[in-house]
Amino acid sequence: MARVNALIVLGARPQFIKSAPLIKELLSRRSHVGLTIVHSGQHYDPEMSSVFFSELELPRPALNLHVGSGSHAFQTATIMVRLERFLKKSKPDIVIVPGDTNTTLGAAITAAKAGFRVAHLEAGLRSSDMTMPEEINRRLTDHCSSLLFAPTRTALNNLANEGLRKIARLTGDTMVDAMQMTSPSVRRAEGDLLRDLELKKRNYVLVTLHRPSNVDEPTRLTEIIRSLKRISKEAIVVFPIHPRTRERLQSLGTDIRRGREQTRFIPPQGYIETMALLKNAECLLTDSGGMQKEAFLLRTPCLTLRSTTEWPETLTGKANRLIRDPRMLPAAIAQARSLRFRGKRFSNPFGDGTASQKIRRILETGQ
Ligand code: UD1
Prior knowledge:
The protein is of the alpha/beta class. It contains 14 helices and 13 strands.
């Protein structure tokens, strides 16, 4: 079998997670795909980047584009200029772009326009909310790719509706692979982690919020914090705080030190720690796409502080509920805490943990 030279471009936290099992598969002995890893540098703090490389045992990237923070235009354009130079030298057979961040879009456009084949990992997701930067990124990326790896049947149908069925393949979700790959480490870590944070199993609400639509608007953010304060009178609230959210809260003058009575703000956690916290939480309040799905797979009830989701499968059986108005949160959290769907049987629409193998075979055979 002829060897295929692939290049993967990643740079933000969720991309490290969803790419990890695929990178391992492509670097394994059974693989006929050669792989070069390029880090855009969109996320650069150790707790947003290198912790994932060490926890997920990923090799060092061959190149870091050191893009850093900035406006959407700045990030996307800087990635384009810097990646183009490298592509001209490295000439891969195919460029893999995971997810829906500015790194995804910048890499996809650059590679497609320079004449390289582009494969989009996690293709076909749609929230239909064009005010989300990720929705723009994923739509444009799908439409300039030559191979689309759809994680779910819904995603495949979305691609078919946009005339992309011929280049789309239903592979399952590599985030299921990532969860299976790391579940022994999560089991080993959870006891110590809960002890260090002085938490008991199923006795706290986990919160993660970082979407611009929630944290960039001071009135809405103030409303959210007010609701969290009310919730923390009834429940322990643990809030690993994303740097974007930390900055916004600091500019509002919110006290984000860890207090016993109030919301417990903690630094952003690694992947293993996040899975351990999620697995043992009474419920999750989030605006992350990936965490809605991870909560579903770990059977932790989820509330999503958004009006849409690109993962509609999670809404089945009350596993996930969309909340638009932060003032609804105290009542919704009280309800979610008393939900008992953990033990129930349900079908898993996200695949069986073999997505990375399927993708390797498609890359090897070209179909
Ligand atoms: C990005 C992705 C989003 C993803 C999220 C996961 C886009 C458009 N958004 O959002 O889809 O869900 O990553 O975290 O690509 N910062 C640091 N240290 C870092 C990185 C960022 O302090 O290592 C701060 C900077 O002030 C920066 C802000 O966080 O301006 C936002 O970072 P950015 O990468 O622009 O967007 P995210 O909100 O992280």
